Amino acid sequence: MSYLNVFICSLLEVLECTIISLDFFLIPLLSAVWIMLPAYIPNPAAALFGGGTPLDFGKNYSDGNRIFGDGKTFRGLFFGVLAGILTGLLLIWLAGTYALTFLPQHTLVSVSLLAFGALLGDLGKSFLKRRMGKVRGAKWPVADQLDLVVGAFILMLLFDPGWLFTYLTLPILIIIVILTIILHRVVNIIGYFLGIKEVPW
User: Fold this and answer.
1) Could you list the residue range(s) of the whole structural domain that residue 89 is in?
2) Phi, psi dihedrals of residue 95, rounded to the nearest 5°
3) Is residue 181 part of a domain?
4) Has residue 12 got a pLDDT over 60?
5) Within a 13 Å sphere around the CA of 57, how many CA atoms are in the beta-carbon half?
6) Position 86 in a domain
7) How many CB atoms lie within 10 A of CB 108?
8) Rounded CA separation 89/35 (Å)
9) Is 176 contained in some domain?
10) How far is CA 38 from CA 43, 72, 111, 119, 121, in A?
11) Are 38 and 57 in contact (CB under 8 A)?
């Protein structure tokens, strides 16, 4: 009987450690995805629904290169931000309906800043690429993947730092960086094969 008790206790300890380990990993992962969804959606939505008049009206900067390029349009900006905000509103509804209190609690302000900031980050990257003489679609490692993260968090830092510092911990930030790099590649490959993206990166 004593051997059985020892075995059961050992098994319970293993199960408890496993559950703790899963929580330790899964909750930050889910939190990272939850935070970034309003920022992840705008770029593919802008590519899908974009087109029309470029944001720079086809004009060149003082260096002779385009300010942003044909890929950045008013329609893409509008529908990209709208898609990000609608995604955020869905997250707010899900959190309230199903009491998902263990996840970051979005607000209309947070989802709007994340959505708009993501596209501002992409826009800023395009401006810098044109200044470096890089053509549309040219590779720029790291910046191509993390521009939306930088843009979204800078805007959050400027206008809603309380929300940002409440939910963005170091482990979650690390997960966001790794996750963004992976998702960026996967989404671009899918977009390329669907004919939405001109290049698979």
Assistant:
1) 34-168
2) -65, -40
3) no
4) no
5) 0
6) yes
7) 11
8) 12
9) no
10) 10, 19, 6, 11, 14
11) no
CB within 8 A of 193, min separation 6: which ones? 200
Geometric angle at alpha carbon 46, from 172 and 58, rounded to 5°: 125
Contact 180, 145 (CB under 8 A): yes
DSSP-derived 3-state class of residue 57: coil
Tokens of 41: 């959606």
Please state, in angstroms and rounded to a whole number, the distance separating the CA atoms of residues 78 and 49.
Answer: 9
Q: What is the C-alpha to C-alpha distance for residues 25 and 144, in angstroms, rounded to an integer?
A: 27
The predicted-structure confidence for 86-111, as pLDDT tens digits, reads as follows 999 999 999 999 999 999 999 999 99
DSSP-derived letter for residue 194 is T
- Does the global pTM surpass 0.85? no
Number of domains in the chain: 1
Average of per-residue pLDDT values in the chain? 86
Sign of CA dihedral 47, 42, 143, 70: positive
Query: Does residue 63 lie in a domain region?
Result: yes
Token readout for 109 is 């302000």
CA 61 – CA 85 distance, rounded (Å):
31
Q: Which residue has the tokens 């890089």?
A: 134
Work out the number of other CB atoms within 10 angstroms of the CB of residue 65. Answer: 17
